[in-house]
Amino acid sequence: MLQKFYSKNNDPYAIQHVADILNEGGIIIYPTDTMYAIGCHALKERPIERICKLKNIDPRKHNLSIICYDLSNISEYARVDNTTFKLMKRNLPGPFTFILNADSRLPKIFRNRKEVGIRVPDNNIIREICKALDAPILTTTLPLRPGEDIEYITDPELIDEKFGEEVDLVIDGGPGGIEPSTVINCCEGDPEIVRQGKGILQE
User: Fold this and answer.
1) What string of pLDDT tens digits covers the 203 residues of the chain?
2) Are 203 and 186 in contact (CB under 8 A)?
3) In whole angstroms, how far apart are CA 168 and each of 25, 56, 141, 164, 186?
4) H helices within the chain, ranges in order?
5) How far is CA 195 from the centre of its chain?
6) 3-state class of 23 per DSSP?
7) How many helices (H) and strands (E) are present in the chain, helices listed first?
8) Is 113 left (phi over 0), alpha (psi -120 to 50) or beta?
9) Reduced to 3 states, what is the DSSP secondary structure of residue 145?
10) If we measure between CA atoms, which residue out of 171, 139, 141 comes closest to residue 39?
11) CB 156 within 8 A of CB 174
C-alpha cells in the first residue's frame, strides 16, 4: 500500500497508524534525507529477520543501523562518550551514520556484531513516525540489483510496484536521493570516516 506524506503538517492519526504498523511487527519503506529505506521496530527481532532475508544480508557480517528521533535517549541503545556525543550533536539531524558500541537493550541480532549505526535523519516524516513509536527504527537502504533502473529505489510509485507485496506500507515522501549517508566509526579512539557520502562532517 502506498500512502502520501509531506515534509510537515501530516495528519497525526496517519503518523500514529504507521507507528501502530511498526508496533505490530510490520515493515515499512520511507524517505530519509539521503535515500529511501526499509525499516521496522528496532526492538522486535522477527521483523528485523524479515528485512535481513529481503535484502539477503547476514546480520552477523553487516552493520545494522537504527533511526532515533533525537539524541536524548541514545545511551539506552549505544555507549557514547562526551566527545562523540558533542560531535553527533553538531551534525544531527543530518545525513550521517555514527557507528557506536551497541548496548545490551538492543535485540540479540545486534549484539552478534556488538556495534550499531545511529541515524537522526533530517527528514520530518520518519522522525515524526519515530517519535510516535517512542522507540528506534531499524533502517537499511533499499536493495538495487545489478542492471536495475535507479528509479526503482527513488520513485515511490515504482518502489511500491517492486516492493509493495513484501512490506506493509510504502510512504510516498516525494522523489528520493541516490547518495548514501556519510559513515563515521566512533567505536575506538578518534572518529574515522569510513564512507564519504552526502554529509560533510562538522568536526
Assistant:
1) 899 999 999 999 999 999 999 999 999 999 999 999 999 999 999 999 999 999 888 877 787 899 999 999 898 899 999 999 999 999 999 999 999 998 877 887 776 778 899 999 999 999 999 999 999 999 999 988 888 899 999 999 999 999 999 999 999 999 999 999 999 999 988 999 999 999 999 98
2) no
3) 10, 19, 16, 7, 34
4) 12-23, 45-55, 82-91, 108-111, 124-133, 156-163
5) 16
6) helix
7) 6, 11
8) alpha
9) coil
10) 139
11) yes
From the list 119, 59, 112, the residue with the least C-alpha distance to 88 is 119
Tell me which residue has cell 541516490.
178
**What CA–CA distance (Å, rounded) separates 83 from 101?**
15
What's the length of the chain? 203
How many whole angstroms separate alpha carbon 92 and alpha carbon 28? 23
